[in-house]
Amino acid sequence: MLRVAVRPRFLGLLALMVAATLVCGLLATWQWDRAHRAITSRSSPTDVAVPLEEALPLGGAVTNEVSGDPVLAGGTFAIQEQVLVPDRRIDGTTAVIVVTALHVEQEGGGEARLPVARGWIPQADVTGPDGSLDPALVPAAPSGHVEIRGLLEASEAATGGIEDGIVHEIATPLLVNAWGEPMYAGYLAQTSAAEGLSPMPSAQSSFQAGLDWQNLGYAAQWVLFGAFFLYLWWRSVRTAYLDERADELTRLSARLDAAAAGSSENPIDQKDVTGVDPDSATTR
C-alpha cells in the first residue's frame, strides 16, 4: 500500500488534508482558550461593580466575559411590568423569582427596559387557597428612582410563553413582546436588599453555568474534524490499493480461464504423439 501512498496524486491530497488538520487544530486551541478564560473568570470573580452603560451597551450581547459580573443600575421600576417565575430550587426551597422592568434613562433621551430579578420568595408564600400563584401576595417594587446592585446574566432560552403574569424562563424575547422595546439583552439578578424578598444567588442562568463545557465541546469537535481529514486520506489510499488488487486478480483470473478454455478446445491426439492409431493397433 506504500507504493500507492507515495504517488504524486496522494501526496498532494495528503498535503491538503494536513493543512485542513492544522486549521482544525488552531480552531480547537482557540476554543480551549475561551473555555479556560471562562473558567478562570468565574473562579476569580470581581467584587467591583461597574455602571450598566459600561458593562452592557443597549443592543449589546451578554457574553461570557461579562456574564456574572456585578453591575450598578439606576432607574424607575414599572410596577405594571412584572412577571413571576415559579418552580425554581434556591437554597433547597421551591421558590418564585420576581422579575420587574427597570426603566433606565438613556443619554440621548428616552428610556430602555432592563429586566431585574428583584429577588425570590418561597412559592408557598405566594400561593392562594386555590393552589395557583397570586401576584397580589408578592411584595411591591419600590417607587421613585432607585439604585440597585446585581449580577449581569444572559437571557434564558424561551420554551413557553407568558400567561397571567407567569413565565417559566427569564427570557428577554418573551419579555420584550409583553413589555415593549427597547430592552437590554439579558437581565440583572439583584443582590442588594429588596424588601420582602431574598437576594438572588449567582449563576442563575444556564448560559453562565455551562459555557465552559460548551467551549470545551467545540474544541473536541475540531480535534475530531482534524482526525477525520487524516482518516479520509488513509481511506482514499486504501481504497485505491484494494481496487488495484481487485483489478489484478480479475485480469489474472481471466487469463487462467482463457488458458483453460484453450486447452479443452485443442486436446492432444495420441496418434500425433505415437504415430500409431490406437483403434487400429493389434495385440501381439
From TrEMBL:
Major localization listed first in the record, in broad terms: membrane
Keyword field: Cell membrane, Membrane
Bilayer topology: Multi-pass membrane protein
Similarity section: Belongs to the SURF1 family.
UniProt-annotated location(s): Cell membrane
UniProt name for this protein: SURF1-like protein
Region described as Disordered: 259-284
UniProt superkingdom: Bacteria
Organism: Brachybacterium hainanense
